[in-house]
């Protein structure tokens, strides 16, 4: 368990109740790699490769180590049922996962217990966490679902310890993303209907400004692309989705 504590939620609420309800209904299928979260299961190794590289670079970790986060505290905001929390725990981190849907937290706790992992799962707002508690803060495919993006990033920044590292990923607001991630993916059943709202997607330029307002400097974003030959992979093409680091200024 981490030493993270909860305080009274501060600032602007960031949880959209309708989003929490939508994802809460999917909780039972979260760990089914062939179910409604199949796309996340395919995406997770790509995101983890980026995160591992960022961890090694930022914390000067040994690339050969299986536990590069040993002795460090990690937060996954919008953790779902723990697809990222569990790998972070295996990397040695004391992990806290927080999510807007109580059903997701229940599923995450049950799965972690079955895996023998001690992960501190919380239901509620990121802003309710005590400030400065985490060396690594992640929010993957989350910012497009919150009620107030600036408030959400401010809460993430507040949770970050001095010298810490943040990792964010999100769909880009492009015509390609609208066609493939919203219309095609939902129509073909690759993503549950109602998951994505194109107007809520964030461009890299917008995210850079939002992060600057939160006192963070954005690193060089990497695209997450798809091709028939390689499937989902990191690339220079950010037309669909991208992942990026941020650090305190």
Automatic annotation (TrEMBL):
InterPro entries per record: SAM-dependent_MTases_sf, UbiG_MeTrfase
Gene: ubiG
Protein name from the UniProt record: Ubiquinone biosynthesis O-methyltransferase
Pfam families per UniProt: Methyltransf_23
Alphabetic keyword roster: Methyltransferase, S-adenosyl-L-methionine, Transferase, Ubiquinone biosynthesis
Binding site for S-adenosyl-L-methionine: 47, 78, 99, 140
Pathway: Cofactor biosynthesis; ubiquinone biosynthesis
Any GO BP annotation: methylation
Classification of source organism: Bacteria, Pseudomonadati, Pseudomonadota, Alphaproteobacteria, Sphingomonadales
E.C. numbers: 2.1.1.222, 2.1.1.64
Species assigned in the record: Novosphingobium album
Function (record text): O-methyltransferase that catalyzes the 2 O-methylation steps in the ubiquinone biosynthetic pathway.
One Gene Ontology term of the molecular function aspect: 3-demethylubiquinol 3-O-methyltransferase activity
Family: Belongs to the methyltransferase superfamily. UbiG/COQ3 family.
Reaction(s) the record says it catalyses: a 3-(all-trans-polyprenyl)benzene-1,2-diol + S-adenosyl-L-methionine = a 2-methoxy-6-(all-trans-polyprenyl)phenol + S-adenosyl-L-homocysteine + H(+); a 3-demethylubiquinol + S-adenosyl-L-methionine = a ubiquinol + S-adenosyl-L-homocysteine + H(+)
SUPFAM superfamilies tied to this protein: S-adenosyl-L-methionine-dependent methyltransferases
